[in-house]
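Lab notebook, bench 4. The sequencing result for the construct came back, and we need a structural model before the next group meeting so we can plan mutations. Quick request posted to the team channel:

Model the 3D structure of this chain.
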Amino acid sequence: MLRHAVTCAMRRLATPSGSGVRAFAGHDARWRAAFSSEGKDDEDGKAEGDLPSGVETAGDTAAEATDSMDTSAESGEDDWELPSTSEDPETDAGAVGDVPASSGLTGATFESIELSSKTPGGTDVRMVAVRPLVLADESLMEKEGWLYDMSEQGHTIHDNPNIRNAHLSDRTKTKMYMMHLKDPSTWGVPQLAEQYRVRQQRVMAILALKKIQQVHLNAQKQTFPHLEAAWEELHGSEDRGTGEKHVRIVPELPKFQVVHADTTQEELDLILPKFVSSEDRAEKEERVLVRQFKDALAYNMKETAPSLNRTGRLRRPPSRPIGGWGLMVVPMVESNSKKTHARAKREGWTVQADAPFVAYPDGTKREINDDEKVMFA
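Done. Here's the predicted structure in token form:
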């Protein structure tokens, strides 16, 4: 399904402007230039304005695809131990993929960098990171949009350094995944977030997506690396974040407390509520947000409750089992009012519903299993 959608999108974007199909509805000059089909075709069937001058096409560099460099084996040490910088030495370039240069799709030429790692169990893992050969032009990047800065940093849509956190390069993401595979205890999620100066939620999402990519590579499925290169070419890429963090901005009003004039400072500390700064509140909320994101990601990746059905029942209804469906029954209390709780407290009993269970059409029932308990967590 994904391959079909990408193929249709590429075919639509490569359609000439005279065919009546609008190639792109955005306002970015680079997008319009990248997906335009203007210019006369030469004898080889290539458009004049498809690629910048001096850049090799996918056909010219296809022979170099097999020469993608293993940086860890070449240098004798792990190149991905620490975050890279924009001054990293260039590696051997090789175009990967079968995207024709005449399609007008950016990212058709890029270099591939092979990174390898060994898990604690002894399994060798190899992945290829991509980086476009055409650098992004900041003057052509789209500046339209809106931004409301509540952190008192003075950021605007034209000056928003925090957007760099969402533009980490594919090489950086692959390094993070390899570092985590090699030594999960040393390079866990908190350590990677601190090293690359991004939030833990972003690190967890990157590791999960790279894990899916590795599964697709092991199954020899197509991963469309040229699309990643096109994104970096259009929007730019960064090797490290800007130190993003959760910010909590809440209006605060003064609180007054009438005390005796001779009250000492020690007594005031006991009477007055403890002051909690916005930074401390943000750190406390961030711990809750990280835990919620981790639980939701584990459920979506089927690391928790793998037996539960996650497909939509409307578009893909499962077949009816023999004898009928079992129903999840959640008992409720007769009354949950304050009067009922007060009465229960006086009489020494508690207002508590029975445990959920699964009921079958034949009248039998069973307790819920560990996977089903996740729905009540």
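DSSP finds twelve helices and six strands in the chain.
Will bring this to the meeting.
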